Amino acid sequence: QVHLVESGGGLVQPGGSLRLSCHASGINFKIHPMNWYRQTPGKERELVANISSAGSSNYVVSVKDRFTISRNNDRATLYLQMNDLRPDDAAVYYCNVQYKGKPYWGRGAQVTVSS
To answer: Residues near 73 by Cβ (< 8 Å), separated by ≥ 6?
Structure first.
């Protein structure tokens, strides 16, 4: 069974940093592209960044040059380093993988950006 568990969310002041982690189990992690999404109340879930099995990455324009997605295949863990956080980055962040034609999600990590 696929299981994704996010951690590392919290409250940070504008301009601060956080690192999210997502541990995956039930899949051969190293062969799967992985994604970070975020969602705020009343809005659709937004793809923030993704990373291929080979390590190449893509970002939504609003986070480019501030966020970095990475992976540790030995630890089956996905990361999102978030720097220079802004109030509009506040959201629940979800780890996602597509496996055998189905999307799997973690329970999410709350990120709050406020002074």
So the answer is: 29, 30
